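idk why but the lab printer keeps eating my pages so im just putting this in chat instead. protein + uridine-5'-diphosphate-glucuronic acid:
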Amino acid sequence: MKYKIKNICCIGAGYVGGPTMAVIADKCPEILINVVDVNQDRIKLWNSSDLENLPIYEPGLDKIINRCRNKNLFFSCKIKENIQNADMIFISVNTPTKKTGFGAGKASDLKWVEVCAREVAKFSTGHTIVVEKSTLPVKTAEVIKNILQAAEFNSDNHSLKFDVLSNPEFLSEGTAIKDLEKPDRVLIGGDNKDAILSLDSIYSKWVPKNKILHTNIWSSELAKLTSNAFLAQRISSINAISALCETTGADVREVSRAIGSDTRIGSKFLDSGPGFGGSCFKKDILNLVYLSKYFGLNEVADFWEGIVNLNNWHQRRISELIVKKLFGTVTCKKICILGFAFKANTNDTRESASINICNDLLEEGAMLCIHDPKVDAIQIEKDLNKKENHKILNAEIPQEGQWCKVKDINLASEGADAIVVLTEWEEYSQINWKEVSKRMRQPAWVFDARSILNRSQVKKANLNLWRIGDGTKY
Ligand code: NAD
Ligand code: UGA
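predcted complex ->
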């Protein structure tokens, strides 16, 4: 192997950059790792002495940070000097969907990636391996390479030299540390064998050799988009079937179990829920749609777009169903929302189904008491684009279309007409329904969009229950 990596810089201290570098630092104590970001507040939180205040909640992350931080893992805003010193640079910045201009609503916005490439071109010294960690459209490496090649050409005595690799990340939030420590596979795409082997030698410190796949750079970029598209496709498929179950008397859990036992299908990712959320599924599929259209493959684009359309329809279906069951109106009715994160074990709310469903209910005039063990009120305020209003908790005067965050579920259920479970937090399966039922306004409803509640306990507490995909008469 030609290049020995001693100093890594990761640009972007987000949900991927932070945990990924923490695990590399933990597994490779001989490598110095600097994670840099333009967001000073985020960096401050990464450096906070109280590990409860890390900007990202991931089980197990705090322990690793405690072991490595300020030993071989550093968080700072010192972008220039850390690029200068690095022999490998990971680009791990955000790549959201473009909001305006060509490709708006579908294509990825690559402005942050381009800024990074230009900074790397400006500040790097000697030979540097640049690794795409962000999820990028196929052919993005070309853009990065073009910028870096211009810098190579203009450098004194051609002293600058770059290699670009694609190394997409497959971690899931909530299980990021486990996924990073025991990945199904690590994908490295590139055209320079020495550069590929240098990155391979880092992962092979803890990942078995047969799980480290080498591909060409375009296959690697496309495999990441395809992987997310396939996963999201399974969720839209089972959610579509859940609607059919509800009208035919079938039970989606039984259908999932039956089809999942077929080893060709497999049992994972077949849980019907309120629709997929998270920062990536929708964005990456829309990116695939954009690319397909760009290359004139309209049928391919329509196929993938259908998965996002189904997800939007499914979330709307749940909102409408809640209103319908509550006698066609939720105006000034108190509804308790359990869960705002897009899945359990994360504080991330990006594209959470809760945002759309809460917005629908607020528009219908409901008063929402929102509970989530990890998401704070400031985040909810940003997502709903509406100020919190505590008056709904004890107001004599109804507060139409208002919301507030609650810590105590029992208190929140006082006078409520309905409870809606939208995130599968473990604690929601432990609720004492008899206690809750006494406090609610009868007849009261429980809507279990995650299918995590004990059906008989809810029923015994004299509550009406709707469960996702459950068409059985009970
Ligand atoms: P994020 O928004 O949490 O973090 C990105 C960080 O990059 C932000 O803190 C931002 O301030 C910083 N940044 C942007 N431009 C910068 C610049 N020029 N210099 C320094 N810092 C800069 O995003 P994320 O969730 O970590 O996702 C990053 C990428 O990884 C995306 O492409 C995403 O699709 C991909 N991905 C995400 C996940 C996930 O679970 N979140 C999993 C796999 C892949
Ligand atoms: C997903 C992929 O699983 C990761 O491999 C990928 O790296 C990542 O996207 C990314 O590129 O960002 P993540 O979004 O963190 O990870 O979480 P998932 O577990 O995939 O869940 C996504 C959404 O689907 C959540 O809203 C979840 O509740 C929902 N889901 C998942 C279901 O409704 N049913 C299921 O059976 C599984």
